[in-house]
Amino acid sequence: MRRTEALNKLHEEWIPHNRPIFIGDLHQSLEKDLEELHKKALHVFTEGCSKALHMQAIGRKGKIGHIHITFFRNRIIRKDFRCRIYWYEQDLYADLVECYMEYDASWAFQHLMKFHASILQESKKYIGKILEADLTLIMRQEASLYMNYITNLFRHVIKVAVEQDIFLQLDKEEELYIRSGEHKDYNELIYKYESRLVDTEDIKQRLIPNEHDEYIHGNFRNIDLQEIYFKLVNLCYAYFTNTNLTSSLLVGCPLIGTDFRNAQLTKANFGHSLIHGADFGGADLTEAQFEEVQASYVMPTIEEFHIPPFMPTRFVGANLTNAVFVNADLRGADFRGAIFHGTSFSESRLDGAHFCEQDLKLIQLSPEQRKGLKIYS
């Protein structure tokens, strides 16, 4: 076998079939240890805010305009799993006074090392055809999958972190961008903070014509948007915290990671929307409609590996009185502490969904739906 054939076999057969095993192990560890991982990441972030605040107090730091969660592939290859969180002024990389905290992400990258050990063993079957440099390149490419899990953990953490007093006390630009990615290279926005007050009427005038097809990371907190109409509008990672969306239509919308905590969503219609990782914690969803929504948080498999590693969709503490889920994919969703009265889960998938034991007496589920639930006393 030639070297090219050996590499093709590795890339086209071994990696696609074995990648889900190691990512699956990571997925399980994140799910199992989420509370503790959340606590540690939040601690590092708030400590960094405290450090930046002190530097501002002594005149060594100006207004914060950017916060970057930064990965170093060279470090990862050397088995140094620390990434950094940088607090930058508006000038970003031109900010000459560094302010950062290091975050130990070994909980994620240890699974990448297990992947490396396994592919190293596999490469020995090709007797000299696969070089160490080939495996290093593969590792650098695979690392991004593990970075995604860390990024999504921080998406989860940032929602809480930006509500902490220490973050609010920072002297910040009117707009502050929190991003995650490689050092001075590709990165993605995970949170946009706006300090200026939202003008409700201005927001309504922009939204009601429904002319734009995306408002990713949009800030729609604490406003009245009753009976607003969205169809096929991208609202991923938007913030509707404490917003009134009574009788609104959000039909066929990408709502991945969207924050609806404590929102008024009575009679809202989310039909055919993608709500992976959306947070409805504490929201009033009385008579809300969820026909054929996609909200799965599933173990990565060869067949479903295209589904990104979102956080579970959360209905924790939500009022689901007379809410209707029809043909919905709710695998892995968290319903703990929700209010159930007349709630329907007709023909919905609930594998791995989280419920309190006492609440299961209040809802009608088929024997098939009850299989595989995660039940808490």
Automatic annotation (TrEMBL):
Domain of life: Bacteria
Protein name from the UniProt record: Uncharacterized protein YjbI with pentapeptide repeats
Organism name: Paenibacillus tundrae
